[in-house]
Design goal:
This protein is of the alpha/beta class. Helix content is 44%, strand content 14%.
Amino acid sequence: RHVEVWIPENAGSNPLPVLYMQDGQNLFHPGDAFAGVTWGVAEMVSRLISEEGLPPVMVVGIWNTHLRIPEYMPQKPLAEWADPRVLERFAKTYGGEPCSDAYLRFVVDELKPFIDREYHTRRGADSTWLMGSSMGGLISLYGVCEYPEVFSAACCLSTSWTIAGRVMIRYLQRSLPDPGTHKLYFDYGSEAQIARYERIQMAANRILERGGYRRDVTWMTRRFPGAAHDEAAWKERLDVPLRFLLESSR
């Protein structure tokens, strides 16, 4: 699997927190990105460091594969609560059953130890985060719930609630990480036109509130009216989740 590591030029000599991002080919280089549009991650992080004094962060972009949907689909919730016919239809549609548990084991047991060994990182969960959009948001949320001792935050842009919303809501009710040590970010744009999408996000918000998360402190949900479900839109608002992560790690 292709993985890209980006370190800001103005990083200094201190160990860096690490942000693991899904769909890594869409982060840096237009020639690699879907539809030729990137998130502009390097430019945005560099600007926040130089202009706003936010602390530097290393970004690890994990490229997706032809099994993107099976790898990003939360496995345990679907297996536990979905009708077997749903699983069968999923496998036929997306080329295989969900295998996100194996994907997360790769990130936790292989990739992170390699990154910590080869680079000057802050290794604790308080300095290790996940971010992704659409299905990448879903797997980022699943990752922080499954491995709260490894990751302390997940930023989920335009989370694919319409694919796995109901089973994820049931999963969140019993699997939220400790609100005293973890942070969660959600946003959405034109997805709000799908009534079911916003209902599921609101249900997630209620679970977070009841679970002890503090709005705009340890949890944030933002709506960006009219924003498209694409890389250009996520690039436009990338500064919001980055501030949410980095301001608390000064």
